[in-house]
């Protein structure tokens, strides 16, 4: 004759004070003692997890810290405006160069070293140094993504030394 299948709820039921009906009388006395979970053995064997320091949470694995410096393809631009006295002035600003990517749509490239930027885009590529966190936030506001150290297929550079010289003459 087979042993009947007994619910594990009886183990729990035997470990708490009862109010109401009692379990059937065929429950063994061993079941009256609650069993210790083996998970507790694993937890106790592990050293306690270090407490997180106060402040913002750290980056996810594989994501550089917020203030990591990066080199971003960019160049100066100017907009015509009037100052407080009504004189025409040119106000400078920096425009990050955006690229089209088949999987990510509009992207801004960011490189962890200047050598990587030069290897990918050429020596004449204008750039600006920035922190990855503010750069990513700014790009997200405009619907773009930041690609860190992208691998770019060899091609003609966007900027050549003569392009930089022509641009410098134009904006002076």
Outline the structure in words.
The longest helix has 11 residues, at 161-171. 26% of the residues lie in helices and 24% in strands. The protein starts with 8 loop residues before the first helix and ends with a helix. The model has no long low-confidence stretch (mean pLDDT 78). The chain has helices at 9-15, 38-45, 114-121, 132-141, 161-171; strands at residues 69-82, 88-96, 98-101, 105-110, 127-131, 145-148. Strand 1 (69-82) and strand 2 form a beta hairpin. The protein has a three-stranded antiparallel sheet with strand order 2-1-5. A three-stranded mixed sheet has the order 3-4-6, with helices on one face. The chain is elongated and about 90 Å long. It has five helices and six strands, in the order ααββββαβαβα. The protein has 172 residues and is of the alpha+beta class.
Computed structural class: alpha+beta
Annotation, overall tally of beta strands = 6
Strand percentage, roughly?
A: 15-25%
Low-confidence stretches: none
How far apart the termini lie comes to: 100 Å
Task: Summarize this structure as a short list of keywords or feature phrases.
172 residues, 3-stranded antiparallel sheet, alpha+beta, 3-stranded mixed sheet, 24% strand
Give a brief rundown of this model.
With 172 residues, this protein is of the alpha+beta class.
Lay out the secondary structure:
Layout: H1 9-15, H2 38-45, E1 69-82, E2 88-96, E3 98-101, E4 105-110, H3 114-121, E5 127-131, H4 132-141, E6 145-148, H5 161-171
Parallel strand pairs: 4-6
Antiparallel strand pairs: 1-2, 1-5, 3-4
């Amino acid at each position: 004759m087979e042993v009947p299948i007994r619910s594990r709820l009886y183990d729990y039921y035997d470990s708490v004070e009862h109010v109401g009906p009692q379990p059937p009388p065929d429950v063994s006395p061993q079941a009256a003692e609650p069993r210790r979970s083996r998970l507790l053995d694993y937890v106790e064997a592990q050293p306690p997890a270090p407490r997180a320091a106060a402040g913002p949470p750290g980056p996810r694995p594989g994501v550089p810290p917020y203030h990591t410096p990066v080199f971003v393809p960019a160049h100066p631009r100017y907009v015509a405006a009037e100052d407080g006295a009504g004189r025409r002035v040119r106000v400078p600003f920096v425009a990050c160069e955006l690229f089209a990517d088949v999987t990510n749509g509009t992207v801004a490239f960011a490189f962890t070293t200047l050598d990587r930027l030069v290897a990918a885009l050429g020596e004449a590529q204008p750039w600006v140094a920035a922190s990855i966190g503010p750069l990513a936030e700014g790009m997200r506001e405009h619907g773009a993504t930041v690609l860190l150290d992208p691998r770019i297929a060899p091609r003609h550079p966007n900027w050549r030394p003569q392009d930089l010289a022509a641009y410098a003459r134009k904006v002076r």
